[in-house]
Amino acid sequence: MGAYQPVPLTDFPAFSEAERRQRVTEFRTFMERRRTIRFFSGQPVPKDIIAEAVKAANTAPSGANKQPWHFAIVSDPAVKKKIREAAEIEEKEFYESRAGEEWLKDLAHLGTDSSKPFLETAPYLIVCFQQNYALDPKTGKRSKHYYVQESAGLATGFLIAALHIAGLATLTHTPSPMGFLRDLLGRPKNERAIMIVVAGHPAEDAMVPTLTKKDFSETCSWF
Ligand code: IYR
Question: pTM of the full predicted structure?
C-alpha cells in the first residue's frame, strides 16, 4: 500500500455524553429485535438497499486493511434454484449422518431440517466469501491476507446489522460443507464461502423459535 501518509481526523462524530448514551441504547434495543428468520415472503427488495448494506459491510476493519472478503449477491431465480438443490444434497447428508447425535440435539430447539425453501423464496442470497490470499486475476500473482476469518466475519456482521437496520430479515445459513458455492458461482480458488446471508422480508406467517440470550453478566468481565 505504500508509505504512511496520515491526514487529520475530521469526520469523527462528536456527541455529548447524553447523546452517546441515548444512541447506544437505541442501537442495543434495536439489535435486540433482530431475529434469524427461516420463512421469507417473495416480496422484492430494491437492489440499491442491498448495495447500501454491502457498502456498510465494506467499512469493517480488516487485517492490514486488505478487506479479504467478497459478497456474491444472488437474485437470479435459476441460480438460487441451483444453490438450493446443491445445499439440500449436503444438508440431507448432514442431518442423516454427518452431524452426529450431540449436534442434532443442540439444533433441536431451532426446528431446522434439510429442507431449505428459503433459498428460493427470499429475494437475495448474499454468499459471503473469505479470501485466503489475494489473487491478481490478470497475472495470477498471489499476495498475503491477514486475519482472514476474523476480517470476513466482521464484515459479515456489519452486513447483517445493516440489513437489520434497513428493516430486512436475515438468516445466516451455513450449508455444510459449502465448497459447492465457489464452483457454482465461478469464484476463484483463493476464496472460500463462509456463509450465505439470506435477505428479504419475513413471510406473514413466519414462526421463530423461543430463544433466550445469555445474561449480560455471563458474557463479559471487567478488569
Ligand atoms: N447447516 C445446517 C445446520 C445448522 C447448524 C447450526 I451450528 C445452526 O445454528 C443452524 C443450522 C442448517 O442450516 O440447517
Answer: 0.97
